[in-house]
Design a protein that fits this description.
By secondary structure, this protein is an alpha/beta fold. It is 30% helix and 28% strand. It has one domain (35-211): Vaccinia Virus protein VP39 (Rossmann fold, 3-Layer(aba) Sandwich), CATH 3.40.50.150. It has helices spanning 9-22, 36-45, 63-69, 82-92, 130-142, 173-180; strands at 53-56, 75-79, 99-103, 115-121, 144-155, 162-163, 166-167, 184-195, 201-211. A hairpin with a 2-residue loop joins β6 and β7 (166-167). Bound molecules: S-adenosylmethionine.
């Protein structure tokens, strides 16, 4: 176990609220003004605006802005940071009412409904314990509609070892897909060299998965 790593919901929430309280939403290392890979993968998969989409650990990301602009009518954003959700809501103004906001910790969450697209950018890689990954997979299975697509992005094998002072697990596309096997199979993958607001390059692995029949 890494020293000082938050291990329960209250500690995780406190950690992430402090991160968002300390930095502006466009100054955090993972900030992107346009979620290029997300939109590219939605296009490749042919995901249309009728799809029910959830952005887990969405934080203050602009993914939701872009989906609303594309006419998506059933978008949910889940995050354990109250501060991050408030930032996103404030940015969206009246459009925030069109979004389902879920102030929840993913690891203790029982989805009340099912989604056609599960989107996770830079959350799964914080799960460095087997039990955390098992909890994530249980929640994922419970939250998916038949035929759902799962989009997950983590740091690539040559990416940073830490983010926001927390250790992360790094994955090649094959390694990341293996985390979801045998219940899920790999549809496609991408590598992205994300440029942080400070100008550093962070390699990401993106995978798209579907549940095996
Ligand atoms: C590196 S940020 C990525 C934010 C967003 N996905 C993006 O790409 O801009 C990680 C996010 O995951 C959230 N998070 C971390 N652990 C979580 C958990 N167990 N449940 C829900 N959200 C979590 C954090 O609050 C933070 O917003």
């Amino acid at each position: 176990m890494a020293a000082n790593r938050p291990t329960n919901q209250a500690e995780r929430a406190a950690h992430w609220n402090l991160v968002y309280d300390t930095k502006g939403e466009d100054a955090v290392s993972w900030y992107q003004s346009v979620p290029t890979k997300t939109l590219e993968l939605f296009d490749v998969l042919g995901v249309g605006p009728d799809a029910a989409v959830i952005d887990v650990g969405g934080g203050a990301s602009v993914v939701v802005d872009h989906l609303l602009a594309r006419g998506f009518g059933d978008v949910s954003v889940l995050d354990l940071s109250r501060v991050a959700i408030e930032r996103a809501r404030a940015r969206l103004g009246a459009d925030a009412e069109r979004v389902h906001w879920l102030h929840r910790d993913l690891l203790g969450w029982a989805p009340e409904r099912r989604y056609d697209v599960w989107h996770d950018r830079a959350v799964f890689h914080f799960l460095i314990e087997d039990e955390e990954r098992r909890a994530y997979l249980r929640t994922l299975r419970a939250g998916l509609a038949p035929g759902a697509r799962v989009i997950v992005a983590t740091f690539d094998a040559d990416g940073p070892t830490h983010c926001s002072r927390l250790p992360v697990a790094r994955y090649s596309a094959a390694d990341l897909a293996a985390q979801f096997a045998p219940d899920f199979e790999l549809v496609t993958s991408r590598r992205e060299e994300h440029v942080t607001p400070a100008g550093l390059i962070q390699p990401f692995t993106w995978v798209v998965l579907t549940a095996r029949a």
